[in-house]
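Hypothesis: this fold can be encoded by more than one sequence.
Test: take the structure tokens below, design a sequence, compare later.
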């Protein structure tokens, strides 16, 4: 005859001890009235199968979680690679556009860290040169897709930087693949420069 301890040992093969103990007591108390020995053996076999299935499900979930984490890493790497290549593209294209449309004599174009307020902020591309013989600094924000929120944030940074350098000609510029409608409207309203892979919007330089 199967004892409650034997039943508990069998259930512990697939379930945590507290759960196995509870199931053993329930099965044992109902054993005489509900099942024959053959039926009980069948029931324990089904229970073992369920435990094994639960274990296979746990493994599948772990593999799924690992795959999701791996995919996140790949997407993050692709994003970083895209950002880097887009900034490199901006370093090459933006100076050419400024030379063509503003007749700017470019002296340098590179990523720089500028002290704005109490901390340094990395600016994607800083173009330094002259327009009509006067020094001009163009601060460029590079985004694959420029949003209105990003436009507002970058223009606020530009204003803080201008307040620290009131005698300098500092101009913001946005570079990317595209911008949403609200972003374009704000850029145009502020007379700000915008260079995209499919178009250019550059205001007439101040005399």
């Amino acid at each position: 005859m199967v004892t409650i301890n034997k039943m508990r040992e069998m259930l512990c093969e697939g379930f945590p001890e507290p759960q196995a103990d509870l199931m053993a007591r329930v099965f044992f108390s109902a054993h005489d009235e509900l099942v024959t020995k053959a039926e009980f053996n069948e029931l324990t076999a089904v229970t073992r199968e369920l435990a094994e299935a639960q274990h296979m499900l746990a493994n599948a979930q772990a593999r799924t979680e690992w795959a999701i984490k791996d995919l996140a890493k790949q997407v993050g790497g692709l994003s970083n690679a895209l950002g880097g290549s887009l900034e490199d593209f901006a370093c090459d294209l933006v100076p050419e556009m400024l030379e063509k449309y503003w007749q700017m004599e470019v002296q340098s174009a590179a990523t720089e860290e500028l002290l704005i307020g109490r901390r340094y902020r990395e600016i994607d591309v800083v173009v330094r040169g002259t327009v009509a013989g006067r020094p001009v600094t163009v601060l460029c924000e590079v985004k694959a897709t420029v949003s209105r929120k990003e436009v507002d944030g970058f223009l606020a940074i530009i204003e803080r930087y201008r307040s620290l350098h009131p005698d300098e000609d500092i101009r913001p510029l946005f570079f990317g693949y595209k911008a949403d409608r609200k972003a374009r409207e704000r850029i145009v309203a502020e007379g700000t420069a915008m260079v995209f892979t499919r178009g250019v919007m550059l205001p007439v330089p101040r005399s």
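The CA atoms of residues 95 and 106 lie 6 Å apart. Strands lie at 105-116, 119-131, 134-142, 145-146, 170-176, 178-179, 193-196, 199-201.
Hypothesis status: open.
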